[in-house]
Amino acid sequence: MTELGPQASTQVLAREMGLDQQNVERRKRIVDLTSEDIARIATLRDVVADHVDEFTGVFFDYLVSLDEGRALFANRTVTERARALKRDHLLAMVEGRYDTEYAIKRLELALLYSKYELDLRVFLAAFHHLLKRIGQSVMRRGESAPLEAFEAFMSLKKVAFLDIGIVVDAIVFERERVIRTQQDAIRELSTPVLQIRERLLLLPIIGVIDTHRARLITESLLKAIRANRAKVVVMDITGVATIDSKVANHLIQTVTAAKLMGASVIVTGLSADVAQSLVALGIDLAKLNTVGDLQGGMEEAEALLGYRVTLTGERVAGASPLVG
Amino acid sequence: MPVPILKQGDVLIASIQAALSDRDLVEFRDDVATRVGSLRARGLIIDVTALDVLDSFATRTLRGIAYTAKLRGANTVVVGIQPDVAFAMVELGLSLEGIATALDLEEGLALLSQRSGQRGGRS
């Protein structure tokens, strides 16, 4: 994302968030923004245009007054950019055109907030502060007809809430992106396929197996079988806490797929609890070649491959356990 | 496109080079049935390395071929199933139960010679 320009990245974000015309229309319905509102907002154009710099200042002064909001001001160019965007935003708020383009424009500032980890609470507080100041100016200007001024201001507030909705959604979406990438990373890391002897692979599985992960495990195992010309695979599930019928089914699928590629799989590390619960659930693992623990599985695999491991009783002199 | 069937010792090697239509598969099956008998083969290797898909009909036909060959006195090994293909087959619930599978041609030959009681190439 970082290498893209701001324009391109907001377009990408809008696409990922599903922020299209239909979505924007729906958002407008949610805040109940009608054509009457837009007409009323038009009467506020002068007030906002006259005070736009003041309003922008109010928003950022409030942010800078709070410790949580200061990260945005560490870099001068960023601050300038944010100010410019906010100014555009204020002018656009009273412009009367709230379409997809308008919504996408809001994303650039949201991306800035998200990048500098602006606290949502702080953002909302500053926004409220800004609205209050706008309200004051509007009421002052419309002193002769306070009810109309109030109505117009409330219409403007609908637009404000529309914008808040978009910005909050974007910030949350960006935050969840981090979670998604980390989840992927964890999944990738946790399914190593190791070659421990010529033509013998070890596949230790730790953690929870869900459908997505089962697929990843199977894929990486099959690729490794091909790459290492493996004949036997020892799959150790000591680290799998619970096995239900779904997980058992995934394991059987993995084993069957490996079999199709000519590799036999030995499953090891079924704990007493797991074994008992499998029996209680009535899951038939007869298709799997299971051995109690990893050591037993390794011995069986070596036997299958024709290895015989003998203890010579000799130790290589001076070899440290780490190197030797 | 017919599948070439090569004879190597007492083993027949059929290498499927391109995606086969259902008609090709049936022809292939008939071909195998006659050749196994006429060439007195003891083993049959079907190489599917070049295939990037194995559907239910192909799977069923392969099973049929293996069974036919068995009845005619030859053990069948299917070799070279690609990772993606294996995965898709498992997901679709297609199985080659009862048929030996091996990684590639070399493995398949080793498996056959092991089965027929001779010593394989590997010590």
Topology:
The complex is a heterodimer of chains A (324) and B (123).
Chain A: H1 6-17, H2 21-30, H3 35-42, H4 45-64, H5 76-93, H6 100-115, H7 120-141, H8 146-189, E1 194-197, E2 200-206, H9 211-228, E3 232-239, H10 245-260, E4 264-268, H11 272-281, E5 289-291, H12 294-305
Parallel strand pairs in A: 2-3, 3-4, 4-5
Antiparallel strand pairs in A: 1-2
Chain B: E1 5-8, E2 11-15, H1 22-38, E3 43-47, H2 56-71, E4 75-79, H3 83-92, E5 100-102, H4 105-115
Parallel strand pairs in B: 2-3, 3-4, 4-5
Antiparallel strand pairs in B: 1-2
Helix pairs in contact in B: 1-2
Could you explain how this protein is built, in words?
- The complex is a heterodimer of chains A (324) and B (123).
- With 324 residues, chain A is an alpha/beta fold.
- Chain A folds into two domains: 179 residues, Globins (Globin-like); 124 residues, STAS domain (Transcription Regulator spoIIAA).
- Helices cover 64% and strands 8% of the residues of chain A.
- Chain A has a five-stranded mixed sheet with strand order 1-2-3-4-5, with helices on both faces.
- In chain A, helix 4 packs antiparallel against helix 5 and helix 9 runs parallel beside helix 10.
- The two termini of chain A are 46 Å apart.
- By secondary structure, chain B is of the alpha/beta class.
- Chain B has a single domain, classed as STAS domain (Transcription Regulator spoIIAA).
- Chain B has four helices and five strands.
- The C terminus of chain B is likely disordered.
- At the A-B interface, helix 9 and helix 10 of A face helix 3 and helix 4 of B.
